[in-house]
Amino acid sequence: ETSLLQLSLFSTCRLGLNFEMTDKALLVVSECPPLGLESLKVKDTQLRASSYKRRGLGPHRGRLNIQSGTVDGDIYDGAWCAQYRDKKQWLEVDARRLTRFTGVILQGRNSIWRSVWDIVHTYKVQFSNDTLVWKPCMNGTEEAIFEGNQDAETPVLALFDTSTVARYIRINPQTWYQNGTKGDICLRAEVLGCALPEPTESKDKLDFRHHNYKEMRKLMKSVQDECPDITRIYSIGKSYTGLKLYVMEISDNPGKHELGEPEFRYVAGMHGNEVLGRELLLNLMQYICQEYKRGDQRIVHLVKETRIHLLPSMNPDGYEMAFKKGSELAGWSLGRYSYEGIDMNHNFADLNSVMWTAIELETDQSKLINHYFPIPEQYTTEEAFVASETRAVISWMQNIPFVLGANLHGGELVVTYPYDMTRDWAPREHTPTADESFFRWLAVVYASTNQVMSNHDRRPCHNKDFLRYNNIINGADWHNVPGSMNDFSYLHTNCFEVTVELSCDKFPHASELPIEWENNRESLLTYMEQVHRGIKGVVRDKDTGAGIADAVIKVDDIDHHIRSVADGDYWRLLNPGEYRVTATTDGYFPSSRTCQVMYDHYPTICDFRLTKMPKERLKELLMKGGKLPKDLQLRLRQLRMRKLRVTTKAINRRRAAAAKRAKRV
Predict the structure, then answer these.
(1) Is the distance from CB of 569 to CB of 591 less than 8 angstroms?
(2) Catalytic residue from among 291, 501, 516, 529
(3) N or C: which end of the chain has fewer CB within 10 A?
C-alpha cells in the first residue's frame, strides 16, 4: 500500500482536458463517479478551506449546484468564498479512504444579491495522504493549470490526463475575476474519483443506470415480457417533439378497472433534469415483477388488490437535453422545462383561485361546491399556453379514477402536500386543505421510511432546514406554486397527491443509483399501500342493484367531497376514527351511516343502497311501459290524497273570504 501511494503521488498528473457540457465529457466522466459533494455523500466535516469570509460562505457551501438563500448575508449562501484574495487559498476534500482521483468540476457563486462574477478563472490541484505533504498535479515539469469558469452557473469539467491515488485533494485558485474592489475567490465544486476498493451495490438485481428514451422503452418492454400476466404498457399522449408518454400498468387484470380495486399512480420527470424519480420507477417495475414471480406475499397482495400506474417520464424532451450533457454537467436548470419552455408544475388549471373567488362572492354558502371544480373555458382552448404533456396528463386523470398518487421531483429532501398555492399570492403561507391531517399522514409515511430523510444527522441540502419540520411541509408554506398538479388533482378529481423531493442532487451519478434505490424502496412500497386506508364501498340503486355513478360522498366535518365512479364504487381516504358518511345524488333520497376506520392495513367497507324518489321511479317505469309495484301505487295514492286535502283547504279558505266580503257589501 505504501509503495502504491508513493508511486501515485509522485506520478505526473499532466494537463487534463476541459469541457463545458459536451457529449464527449459525459463519456469520459463515467470512468469514475463524483465523490458526492452535490449529493451530500461527502459530509461537511470532510470539507476544509484555507479561510472563508463568514459561516454562510464556509467550505461546507462549496458544493456543485448548491443554491443560495433569499436573505442577503444569511448562513445559506451559494459557494465557498475565501476571506483573502491571493494564490494561497484552497478548498480541501477528505475522501476518507484511498481514492483514484480523475477530475474536478467547478462553478462560480450562486447568489441573487451579489455579483455574478464571483468566479475562479484558473486553478491548480494538489494531493496528499496526510495533509502534511502535498504533491501538485503536474504538466511535464510544471504544475498543471486548469481552466475554471467564465460565468457563475455553467459547470466546467477538468479531467486529469493521469489519475492519482490519494486520500485528500485540494483546489487552489490562481486567477479570478477582479474589477477594483469587486470579485472574490468563490467556487462550487465536485470531485471525481473511484474509491479503493470499489463500493458494494444493492442486493436487488436491477438495471442501475441512466436510461434515455430508447433505453427506457426497451427496459419497460423487457419487464412486460418477463411478467406478461400482470403488466401492460400504454401511452397517454406525446411530448411536443413526438416522444410518447409511456405508462407501465401493474395489476392482476391489466387493462381493466375492477370493482372496488383502487387506482394508484406515480409520476416522475415532470422536470426533465430531475432524473432520480425516473430511474426509481424503472427500478420499481423491475422489482415488483421479480418479487411477484418469487412469491413475495407483500408484493403479491399489492398487485392483486391495487391497480398501479407508473409514468416514469412526463417530460421526455427535457430529459433528453439533460441526458446528453450528463450527470454533474447539466447544471441546475437545463432540461427542467418542456421543449416550449413551460414549467409543467405551474401549468395546470388554477382551480384554487376559482374556489377562493367563489367563497368571497357567494352569499349563500349552501350553493358553494368543494370538489370536482370545472376547468375554466379559456384554459381548454387551443390558444391556451398549455403544454401537450400537461393536456395528456389531465386527460389521463379524467379517464382513470385515481385515488392516490405522488409526483417525484429532485433537488431537495422533503415531502410537500397541498395546497401548493397561497390564497392571497403571498410568497409563502401555510394554506391547508380540508384533509390536512390525512395529507400530513401521507407525507410522514414517505419521509419516515426514507433512509436519508429519517437520518437526523444529515445536513440541509441548500438553504432550508427541513429537518426542523420532520422533512414534511405544506407546499404553500415553502413557496407559492400556482397551477400545481397536486392542487389540480385534489380540486378536479378524487385523487390525493403529494410531491416527493428525492435528493439534493437533481441528476445523481449512475454509481449512486443503487444506494438511492435502497434509500427509497421501502418508502415507495409503503406509500402505495396507503391507498387502502379509509373507507370504500359501492353506491347502488336499492331496487335494481345497479351501481350509481357520480354519487357524492360527504363526510361530516370535512368540507371536501368525492364521487363514485362508473360502476358506483368509491374510495374515501381517511385517518382512523368514527365518521358520519352520507351518499347523495339527483333523483334519490340521501342515505347516511356511521363508518369506523380502524388502524388495519385495509379499508372499512361502507356500501350504500339509495332509494329513488317516487317521481323519478314513476318516470322511469312509465318510459319503460312497466306496471307500477304496490308500494309505489300506495305512495302515489298517499301523495294524491295529500294534494287533494291541501287544494280543498285552499278552495274553502277562498270561498269563506268571498262570503265575508259579500256580507259586508
Answers:
(1) no
(2) 501
(3) C
